[in-house]
Amino acid sequence: MDRIALGSHGLEVSRQGLGCMGMSDFYGGRDEDEAIATIHRALELGVTFLDTADMYGPHTNEVLVGKAIAGKRDQVQLATKFGIVRDPDDVTTRGINGSPDYVRQAIDASLQRLGVEYVDLYYLHRVPSDTPIEETVGAMAELVTAGKVRFLGLSEASPSTIRRAHAVHPITALQTEYSLWSRDAEREILPTLRELGIGFVPYSPLGRGFLTGTIRSLSALDADDYRRFSPRFQGDNLAANIAIVEAIDAVATAADLTPAQVALAWVHAQGNDIAPIPGTKRRSYLEQNVAATSAHLSPAQLEQLGALADAAVGNRYPDMSLVDR
After folding, report:
1. pLDDT of 210-251, one tens digit each?
2. Residue 58 preceded by cis peptide, ω within 30
3. What does the angle CA 11 – CA 276 – CA 300 come to, to the nearest 5 degrees?
4. Positions marked catalytic
5. What's the mean pLDDT in 54-78?
6. What is the pLDDT of residue 47?
């Protein structure tokens, strides 16, 4: 697995990371033993950039990742996130907290759950509306000084928020959904990141599994699977979005790749400053995803896939007001 500089401030990560969210939350079916085995296999394959958050579970995903990396801390670039607050007794209720006091509370709790002394990359998961970003990032910067965090990141932040945050303390990475059916980051966010020397970490590069071609209806999904409530998976939207999968299938057949490998190879082709974090909870899918880092798409195939821009029907989230734009 190749390694890249994520941003211009000294953080080096594997070219492709591993999103750990689905091992504990949102996509049904949990198997802790297989999840931990998947993380261990990722490290064997050189996938050392692991992504979690305190709201996944909530809290349980950090505990799981902590178990998996016990005794292996020096092999890992560990990223976690704070700012989305979920009630363990009512996980459907959530808020956003970026107050300085909460920043300090959140990192201490995450370090305890992860069983580590520091995290490599600490993200603000969502931008709060009631706390100036300068105050939140100022408190995050104190964590760097204290040695609890090495680098700072933001998630789903607008270009103006990124600039304001970066003026307080260097931002190393921005995490936003980006894939063949989520291209809006190309308009303003990616140019801003490249101007400022900030790395880009696309989450859901496989479109929450949709771009793998394995989801043609909701019938096979667990009752609590998040995708049952996602606008792009609903009714006429789902039917319309099947056309995107069919276009990826056509390229996959010609390239002798899986649809997932095509979708990931396209993301990798968008720049050497991009480290996508496809999520999986199974070793078999992890190994397929890792193979995408050496897959080659021809200029004609990249152009064919690029024509899918703005083809997706439906919002990315049921409530887009939680995304800073």
Report:
1. 999 888 888 878 888 889 989 999 989 999 999 999 999 999
2. yes
3. 125
4. 56
5. 97
6. 98
What integer pLDDT is reported at residue 319 of this predicted model?
85
3-state secondary structure the chain: CCEEEECCCCEEEECCCEECHHHCCCCCCCCHHHHHHHHHHHHHCCCCEEECCCCCCCCHHHHHHHHHHCCCHHHCEEEEEECEEEECCEEEEEEECCCHHHHHHHHHHHHHHHCCCCEEEEEECCCCCCCCHHHHHHHHHHHHHCCCEEEEEEECCCHHHHHHHHHHCCEEEEEEECECCECHHHCCHHHHHHHHCCEEEEECCCCCCHHHCCCCCCCCCCCCCHHHHCHHHCHHHHHHHHHHHHHHHHHHHHHCCCHHHHHHHHHHCCCCCECCCCECCCHHHHHHHHHHHHCCCCHHHHHHHHCCCCCCCCCCCCCHHHCCC
pLDDT bucket at 310, cuts 50 / 70 / 90: confident
Instruction: Check: CB of residue 156 under 8 Å from CB of residue 323.
Output: yes
End-to-end CA distance of the chain: 34
How far apart are the C-alpha atoms of 224 and 60, rounded to whole Å? 17
Is 146 buried (19+), middle (13-18) or exposed (0-12) by CB count in 10 A? exposed
Residue 231: predicted pLDDT? 93
Is pTM beyond 0.90 here?
yes
**Mean pLDDT value of segment 142-165:** 98
Q: Which residues contact 219 (CB under 8 A, 6 or more apart)?
A: none
Say which residue the tokens 């949709």 belong to.
Answer: 210
**For a pLDDT cut of 90, what percent of the chain falls above it?**
88
Pairwise CA distance, residues 188 & 190, whole Å? 6
Is the pLDDT at 46 greater than 90? The verdict is yes
Instruction: Let me know if 127 is exposed, middle or buried by CB neighbors in 10 A (0-12, 13-18, 19+).
Output: buried
**pLDDT of 267 higher than 90:** yes
